[in-house]
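Appendix B, record 7
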Amino acid sequence: MKRNPSMHIYDGLDRELISLLRNDGRAPLSKLADALGVSRGTVQNRLDRLLENGTLHGFTIRVREDYEADDIRAVMMIEVAGKSTSQVIKKLRGMPELQKLHTTNGSWDLVAEVLTTNLSEFDRVLREVRMIDGVLNSETSILLSSV
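Structure tokens (predicted):
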């Protein structure tokens, strides 16, 4: 049973550990322990607690910026009707093409980072998002290059 991460008070060691993992999610326990000046057991206990309380969702890789150079990347702003935000978020999380999903303020309720391999797949994703009950409006901008 996952606890609410907001109930946990993070100390300097937690923050340093998370920072190290952001830089290298595959770092061995011994390397993390050396960098933090603590035992491997301490690192393992901290990792277990951060995973259990939902602070850490898992470990992933990062790829070179140009690895997915031919893919279509975009940012989609989404307006949601009334109190249907939770339902909409649940459906959007089920779409693998939406790499990240953020809540926001202002005219748009959600911002999604979209990644597809071609324009026809991109078009399909846009249509699927717009068909979700509770989605009132959306605006999407294709990302052309990173500067």
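Remarks on this record: The chain has a mean pLDDT of 87. Residues 4 and 53 are 6 Å apart (CA to CA).
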